[in-house]
Specification:
heterodimer; A: Rossmann fold; Elongation Factor Tu (Ef-tu), domain 3; 6-stranded antiparallel β-barrel; globular; B: alpha/beta; Rossmann fold; 2 domains; 6-stranded mixed sheet; 4-stranded antiparallel sheet; 9 helices; 12 strands; disordered N terminus
Chain lengths: ~425, ~300
């Protein structure tokens, strides 16, 4: 039975949600792979299917062209280029998937960085005829840099190498050699033919020598936990709820601190410290929609009430006492520059970290990384798609953890106040 | 209420609906935290009904930090506008209604013909409302799965002073660090349920026991067949001479402008039955479904238009 033969959803355990990234160029069969996942998971809605059926027919095709499912913007079709990250959705009845489909070309490093920032897993496509290429190294480096812990190497177009186990083994060995250099620990390999549907959802008939899981089986069992070993409780305050004008007099003293748990867990009664004041108190209640709940876990949006009246506003952070983050006005980070205007070392930018903003100035560029060779080079300035190790000086302290421990409290964006545009993405080291 | 579960490794994680809901709450709170004068678009349709539930979870026991706004085409089903008014009153939140017909009276909307669909004209009225109230952010219920162009739109989507979206010049959006900054006259559209699909919406409606306007459920209604599709016979869409009026069991998948919202034949009278119909499990089953192709085209077009709000 195929992994996703449908049962009524309510009888199946809900295995949560997995966000993954697909890296590769159109030539690697990426659109066909995504189309195959959407199509074979049988969750395409009738109207979508109808649209691609009629487009296929108009183009004189007698089969449905699955790559049409990922057809892009009108502007992209007109110009024959892929500009941007697209998000696609499918479900297997037990798990919901969000695919971030990023263009693979070097010029679009910033798009891949964007797509990778929210992904738990990356599928790196390799054309079996071509093996490990420069772009494979680039994609793997970026996925690793953005903290994606699970890498799946999809060796596609196996039909064009006669489904050769030797070719597959060679590509696997080549890949493992440089994955070790990068420090990528969790990597899995699947031989496949997206065109024929082999080893994606169904096993197909051509790869009997491969006894590992299909791509979908890997996706179904991958842990969807965003911060594997960051279990320190971090709660950036987004909004303070003070319903003084409520008709209910009981609410006149209500002060609820609203936000989303970035990592860790919290229980009523826990001792907490509020930053930047450093004041300590205990958790009086944890609420959703005014109802009390004993715990809050990572990624939950809740409202926290505290025992003592402490002045807290947006941008402050509630942490467990004894698990304090780094409090600093100087940060070292890996920075990806996203803007067509180069990073200007003389200018002040706005740095947004969790719910906190601070003015920031570049303190130095240690080195720039060549994303193809991974060489470290000296650099005076940064232009779009550059990745570099830098340091910033901040006007206000931020409460941070290394990105490798916690995405939520290790990531920041850089905003140019003259345009209000987001111009940089940083990961604190 | 959120229900955290334990995975095999013993770490708590959220079900997919809990995760989507939490993401949407986080987004709404970011709007409240970053914007000075936001508004939430509420039409009485199913997506915006979910949005109100999310807003309750985001801000209760406080009031919503924004009013609700409906841009009324004047071509709405009565069941939907009644529902809209009732729901806003139940929540005790302020509802602003601005009408395309007022824009027509002002001369800012000019119809080519009197019975032309008015959905696309909503954007004029919306921009007029944005200017009237000085809104710096509009929170809407559009989803990325609705339409191809949407798949690439940001959750916080910047619009210039003409309300235009420039897909080639979007702000990068990384992690959950949203940038809602704008200059005066500019506007940010925010889509908290970007990552939801139609099925997610229906599952959420079921889980949260959300009330919907009655026309979402199967009911008998007079219709004519035109251009291969089913068209409701109403005051604004009378039968043409020579057309036969049939009385069929139908439901609406979207509830926009009467003149271009086609129902589908269905006997799904509960949310669970709608979910079963919406989750089309196999292609062959789909071939047998009563979802007539012309009708799905019309629905698609409708949703595209809704998306442009």
């Amino acid at each position: 039975m195929s992994a996703i033969e449908k049962l009524p959803a309510e009888t199946l355990p809900d295995n949560g949600l997995l966000r993954f990234l697909t890296c590769g160029s159109v030539d690697d069969g990426k659109s066909t792979l995504i189309g195959r996942l959407l199509f074979d998971s049988k969750t395409i809605l009738a109207d979508t299917l109808h649209a691609i059926q009629s487009t296929s027919a108009k183009r004189g095709l007698d089969v449905v062209d699955l790559s049409l499912l990922t057809d892009g913007l009108q502007a992209e079709r007109e110009q024959g280029i892929t500009i941007d990250v697209a998000y696609r959705y499918f479900t297997t009845g037990t798990r919901k998937y969000i695919i971030a489909d990023a263009p693979g070309h070097e010029q679009y490093t910033r798009n891949m960085v964007t797509a990778a920032s929210t992904a738990d897993l990356a599928i790196i496509l390799i054309d079996a005829r071509k093996g490990v290429l420069t772009q494979t190294r680039r994609h793997s480096y970026l996925a690793h840099l953005l903290g994606i812990r699970h890498i799946v190497v999809a060796v596609n177009k196996m039909d064009l190498v006669d489904y050769s186990p030797e070719t597959f083994a060679q590509i696997r060995d080549d890949y493992l050699a440089f994955a070790a250099e990068l420090g990528i620990a969790d990597v899995r390999f699947v031989p496949m033919s997206a065109l024929n549907g082999d080893m994606i959802v169904d096993r197909g008939e051509h790869l009997d020598w491969y006894d590992g899981p299909t791509l979908l089986e890997i996706l179904e069992t991958a842990p969807a936990i965003h911060s594997a070993h960051a279990e320190k409780f971090r709660f950036p305050v987004q909004y303070v709820c003070r319903p003084q004008d409520s008709a209910n007099p009981e609410l006149h003293d209500y002060r609820g601190f609203m936000g989303r748990v970035e990592s860790g867990e919290l229980a009523i009664g826990d001792a907490v410290t509020v930053l930047p004041s450093g004041r300590e108190t205990r958790v009086r209640d944890i609420q959703v929609l005014g109802e009390s709940q004993p715990h809050a876990v990572a990624e939950q949006s809740v409202t926290i009430l505290l025992d003592d009246e402490i002045d807290i506003s947006r941008g402050d952070m509630i942490v467990k006492s004894g698990e304090l983050p780094m409090v600093s006005k100087q940060i070292d980070a890996m920075l990806c520059w996203l803007s067509e205007s180069p990073l200007d070392p003389r200018r002040k930018y706005l740095l947004r970290h969790t719910t906190r903003d601070s003015k920031a100035m570049l303190a130095g560029i240690d080195y720039r990384v060549d994303v193809n060779t991974l060489e470290q080079q000296a650099a005076e300035r940064l232009v779009m798609n550059d990745i570099a190790r830098v340091s910033f000086r901040l006007a206000q302290p931020i409460f941070a953890d290394p990105y490798s421990e916690s995405r939520g409290t290790g990531a920041f964006i850089v905003i140019d106040e003259s345009s209000n545009n987001t111009v940089g993405a940083g990961m604190i080291v | 209420m959120n229900t955290a579960m334990l995975s095999q490794s013993g770490q708590a994680r959220l079900s997919h609906l809990d995760w989507l809901e939490s993401e949407a709450i986080h987004i709404m709170r970011e709007v409240a935290g970053q914007c000075s004068n936001p508004v939430l678009l509420f039409s009485g349709g199913k997506d915006s009904i979910c949005m109100l539930r999310i807003a309750e979870k985001a801000f209760r026991p406080g009031r919503f930090p924004f009013p609700l706004l409906h841009v009324d085409t004047g071509h709405n089903y009565r069941e939907v506008t009644d529902f809209r008014d009732r729901r806003a009153a139940e929540l005790g939140e302020r509802l602003i209604v601005r009408s395309v017909e007022d824009s027509m009276a002002r001369g800012t909307v000019v119809l080519k013909s009197a019975d032309e669909p008015r959905n696309k004209h909503q954007s004029v009225t919306l921009l007029e409302a944005i200017e009237e109230f000085g809104f710096d952010a509009c929170i809407g219920g559009a989803r990325r799965d609705e339409e191809k162009a949407r798949a690439k739109e940001r959750i916080f989507s910047f619009r210039d002073e003409f309300g235009q979206w420039d897909p080639k010049n979007q702000r990068p959006e990384l992690w959950d660090l949203y940038n809602a900054r704008s200059f005066k006259g500019e506007n940010i559209r925010v889509f908290p349920i970007s990552n939801w699909t139609e099925i997610d919406v229906w599952q959420y409606i079921e889980r949260e026991h959300l009330a919907l306007p009655s026309i979402y459920f199967a009911h008998r209604r007079p219709l004519v067949r035109r251009g291969g599709g089913l068209l409701p016979v109403t005051e604004v869409t009378p039968a043409r001479s020579g057309e036969t009026i049939e009385h069929l069991m139908v439901r609406f998948r979207t509830v926009g402008d009467i003149t271009c919202t086609a129902p589908v034949e269905s006997d799904a009278d509960t949310v669970a039955r709608i979910i079963a119909e919406t989750a089309i499990t196999t292609i062959t089953e789909r071939g047998a479904t009563r979802l007539d192709d012309q009708t799905s085209d019309a629905s698609m077009e409708q949703r595209k238009k809704e998306g442009y709000f």
